[in-house]
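#struct-help
A.M.: can someone run this one for me? Single chain, 380 residues.
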Amino acid sequence: MDAVTTPLEDIARFLRRLQWAAVALFALWLLWLLAPVLTPFVIAAMLGWLGDPVVDRLVAAGRSRGTAVALVFSVMTVIFVALVLLLVPMVQRQIVTLVESVPRYQQWLVGTALPWLEARTQLDIDRWLDVDYAVAMLREHWDSAGGFAKTVLGYVTRSGSMLLGLAVNAVLVPVLAFFFLRDWDAMVERIAALIPPRHLATATRLAKESDEVLGGFLRGQFMVMLTLGIGYAIGLQIVGLDLGILIGMIAGLLTFVPYVGPASLLLLGGIAALVQYGDWQHLAGVVAVFGIGQVVESYWLTPKLVGDRIGLHPVAVIFAVLAGGQLFGFLGMLLALPVAAVANVLLRYAQERYTHSRLYAGDTPSILLDAGGPQGHESA
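D.P.: on it. Structure tokens below:
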């Protein structure tokens, strides 16, 4: 039977819980207050976490920790610099092409798409949708956004303190990432030493599960997104689409949401093919790129890079990123996925504890199968 608690013990337990709640609220307030300062540290910590498994493999292969860290850090730096040098000019050219193509897309929408839709649906779309006004508003706001971007850029270039902050973060993130990468195992051991021994096994299990969930999504799904984005962009360029690189990158980035990435490739790529060429051959080329991408993803990329590791549900990912950005800005978006992964693991653990509790199972005995034979034994 459960021990009977006195009113004083109940009050003491309530006060302890109230104290922990106050500590949690204070930590959240401090996180919100220090978000601009903590951002480079969080970025560097995530880079260190991503590179630590590779460092451990190199150490296990016989290299020293310092040599392994230097190799991984150098490779990460080269990859980042190469991506920036390649992607920034490419994306800039694609955006310029998109802006220049707006009149052609408007003409196709008004002269081809809407009449075809009206003929098939017998709806008078012009009566409730003023396309010319919508396009004019889009142009006006596009120009406003461009003017706003120029204003912000001018302010940044004139503001010495902001430039100094950007320069400091640009230098600070690589330096911090190197130290996180070098000392990651030591920091994990120090944190583990602070956990009470009676809870160490449970905390270790939950930490490993959280690492698997987050690692399965970030490491595996990121590689799937990157590979598909490059493949889609190359395929659409072969088809001959002027905006093929931009559409391929968008479809690759949206791959982590089931059906959204492929659907965006078909929709945007199909519209671009119809506007630019207006024939079924190029539209068939877009469908072929879509089909090849789906086959490669389903039968090679996802089994090879993600496997059977438990990933986060796309709805949870989207909600976590949006909620984190709303609450803590850019820092919240960075912390959203780790927090969501840990919360996912804790919820599963709570469900497991609940299903084994007396509240769920009651006082009836459960049958446990003996590993040594087909027969089981009863346990209360």
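A.M.: thanks! Confidence is low (pLDDT under 50) at residues 145-153, 155-159, 365-380.
D.P.: also worth noting: The two ends are 13 Å apart (CA to CA).
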